Every structure is written in C-alpha cells, then in structure tokens.
C-alpha cells in the first residue's frame, strides 16, 4: 500500500465516484421473472440469469450490495476513501420490461427510494433519475420530477430499449428535456440486443468484458453522427469505461464519417456543424468506471480535455480499493487530480 485511503480530502481533493449502481428488490424480481418466462433478450438472460441466481461469492456480494443504500455501502466507500457517490438504478434499469405501466411504476418507486437514501446521507449519496424510455413523454415528466422534487443530478439510460436508440425521433422528448433542464444524460451499458449479439454469449464476450462497450459506443455514435448535438448544443452526454473507447478511435471515426457523408452512401448521414472531435470536447464527458488505467486516463484527457474526465469505481461490480491508490499516484499536476476526482463532477452534476 502506497498510502492509507481516507475520506475528507487529506490529499487535497475529495473523491467523487460517478457511476455507482443500486437495485431495488422489485426491479430484480421483475427482471428475473422475464428471464424465467423466456421473455428477456439474450443479453439480459446471460447477465441476470447469472447475477440474479448464482450462489458464488462474487454474485452474492453484488446482489447484497446492490440492494443496500445504507451502512454497507457507506462502509465500503470509507474503506476505499470515496467521499461521495453518484448513484443510479442498475442495468438494464426497467428497459427490458415489456409492460410499460409496470416499467414506469418500478422506475418511479426506485426514484423515491433513492431520494430517501440521499436525504438520509446528504453528504455521501447523490442520485440520477431512472426513466422508462418505452414512454418518452412520461420519462420527460419523470426527469422534471427527479430534478425539481427529488433533487437528482442527472439521468441514467441503460443504452438500448428493446433494440431502439435515443437518436430515433420518438425519444426526442427525453433529449429535449435533458437539454432544456440542464440534466446530464449518462448512457450506461447493457447487453447488446438480439439483432447485434451474434455469438458473443457463446464466446463469453457479451458483457462488461466486451459487448457492453461495443453496444454503448454504437449508441453514442448514433447521437454524435446524426446531428443531435447541433440540434441541442447544450446537451451533455456522459459515457463510462473510458468514454466507451471513443477517445481512442476518434481520428478514424471522424475521417470515415466525413468520407461517408461525401460519398452520399447513407441517407441518414448529413454534414455536421463541427468535426466529431468538437463534440467530444464540448458535449461528452468520460468516466473511468472499471478502467483504472493511468495511460487510458491520460489519453482521455488529451483528446477530451482534462475538464471532462471524471473518476468512477463501478461499485459493486468492480470494487478494488487498491485502484484508488493507483489513481491517486498518477503523474499529474495536483490541480488536474483535483479536477479528475472532485471538481469536474461537482461542475457537471451541480453537486
């Protein structure tokens, strides 16, 4: 151990973890029922058929910690030196549920439960609203309730909703509300939809190891390449896991996107007001959830700007306090480390 992990800012900054998951028993029961009834897609079956039922030490830990919004979570934060956590309903949220009224009810009650926990621990927990994109107008209203009544600081959408994506016209009420209300939109992974997943399950690659990033970066690129940020220049998009790889790919993405526009091969692709790099530096934020890599973090900062990169742990799925020590010791100026761990999150989420 290079140093003791403490809360309270002894190293010159607080540590704010910006992608931390919780679940409700009602949500987990609904998802497991879909799996049991054969109504869930392959990604949900693989993810929750395992995490929801396996007796292994890892899955038992994760289920217990997902359902806890109290002392277990606070103790884990203290042990890892985490001062504050931005919490969201775990993937796939309610987006795999077919009954829209059921999905809306579960999301609304989860929001109330999270708000109560944030009220109980006002210096430690901050919430993001859960929505049911199956009903975009209801979701827009729930976003406003989350901000105005529950004191939430963003919204988490678990990527696709039954294989549909936020750039599609029916979801415009969600994007418009996020832009107009200043609500950061965090797109979090879930398993790829059935028309994308192919042989990933059989290969053991559909989840966090690979498939999550492929599907979520695809979602983000649909937003980036179809003029969403020209339409809503104030919209702020957050992506975890190293911004889902986009900073590494951005030069090729930008070149090939513009080549596609010039070729007029794709009806959907039109010229944008700016290069794709511009949107990464003005509309996109990246977190390090599950990616405690100093080299990757430096790349993100080089491409996106050091004001747009934030720390996240991905608790309870990836809980390794030693990773915090590693990132504390990054060879970065003190003011940059403070931005990374604290002030960027405070600015974006208005903490």
Provide a descriptive summary of the structure in words.
- With 351 residues, this protein is an alpha/beta fold.
- It contains 17 helices and 9 strands.
- It has helices at 25-37, 42-51, 57-66, 71-80, 100-120, 136-148, 172-181, 194-197, 200-203, 211-225, 228-231, 240-243, 246-263, 276-282, 294-304, 321-328, 334-349, and strands at residues 16-22, 84-89, 125-127, 129-130, 155-157, 185-187, 237-239, 284-287, 309-310.
- The strands form 2 sheets. A 6-stranded parallel sheet has the order 4-5-6-7-8-9. Strands 1-2-3 form a 3-stranded parallel sheet.
- Helix 1 crosses helix 2.
Write a concise synopsis of the structure shown.
By secondary structure, the protein is α/β, with parallel strands linked by helices.
User: Mind telling me the CATH superfamily name?
Assistant: Metal-dependent hydrolases
Q: Identify the overall geometry.
A: globular
Radius of gyration using CA atoms only: 19 Å
Strand content: 5-15%
Helix and strand run: EHHHHEHEEHEHEHHHHEHHHEHEHH
Number of strands: 9
Binned, the helix content reads 40-55%
CATH topology: TIM Barrel
Spatial ordering of strands, largest sheet:
4-5-6-7-8-9
Unreliable stretches (pLDDT < 50, length at least 5) are none
Total domain units = 1
What structural category characterises the helix and strand content?
Answer: alpha/beta
Q: Please give the alpha-carbon distance between the first and last residues.
A: 31 Å
How would you state the average pLDDT, rounded? 97
Largest sheet: 6 strands, parallel
């Amino acid at each position: 151990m290079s140093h003791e992990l403490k809360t309270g800012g002894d190293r010159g900054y607080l540590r704010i973890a910006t992608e931390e998951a919780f679940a409700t028993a009602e949500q987990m029961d609904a998802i497991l029922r879909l799996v049991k009834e054969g109504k869930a897609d392959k990604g949900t079956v693989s993810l929750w058929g395992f995490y929801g039922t396996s007796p292994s030490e890892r899955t038992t830990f994760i289920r217990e910690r997902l359902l806890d919004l109290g002392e277990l979570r606070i103790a884990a934060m203290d042990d890892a030196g985490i001062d504050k956590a931005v919490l969201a309903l775990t993937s796939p949220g309610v987006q795999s549920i077919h009954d829209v009224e059921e999905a809306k009810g579960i999301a609304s009650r989860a929001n109330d439960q999270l708000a109560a926990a944030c009220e109980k621990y006002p210096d430690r927990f901050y919430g993001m609203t859960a929505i049911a994109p199956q009903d975009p107008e209801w979701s827009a209203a729930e976003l406003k309730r989350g901000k105005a009544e529950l004191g939430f600081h963003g919204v988490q959408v678990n990527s696709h909703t039954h294989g549909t994506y936020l750039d599609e016209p029916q979801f415009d009420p969600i994007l418009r509300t996020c832009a107009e209300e200043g609500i950061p939109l965090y797109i979090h992974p879930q398993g790829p939809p059935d028309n994308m997943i192919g042989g990933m399950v059989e290969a053991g690659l559909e989840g966090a190891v690979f498939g999550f990033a492929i599907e979520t970066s695809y979602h983000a690129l649909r937003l980036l390449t179809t003029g969403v940020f020209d339409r809503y220049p104030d919209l702020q998009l957050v992506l975890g896991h190293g911004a889902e790889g986009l900073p590494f790919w951005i030069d090729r993405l930008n070149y090939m996107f513009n080549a596609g526009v010039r070729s007029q091969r794709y009806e959907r692709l039109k010229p944008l007001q700016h290069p794709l790099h511009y949107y990464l530096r003005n509309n996109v934020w990246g977190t390090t959830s599950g990616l405690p890599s100093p080299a990757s973090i430096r790349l993100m900062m080089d491409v996106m700007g050091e004001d747009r990169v934030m720390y996240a742990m991905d608790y309870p799925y990836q809980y390794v306090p030693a990773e915090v020590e590693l990132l504390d010791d990054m060879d970065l100026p003190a003011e940059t480390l403070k931005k990374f761990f604290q002030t960027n999150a405070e600015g974006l989420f208005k903490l």
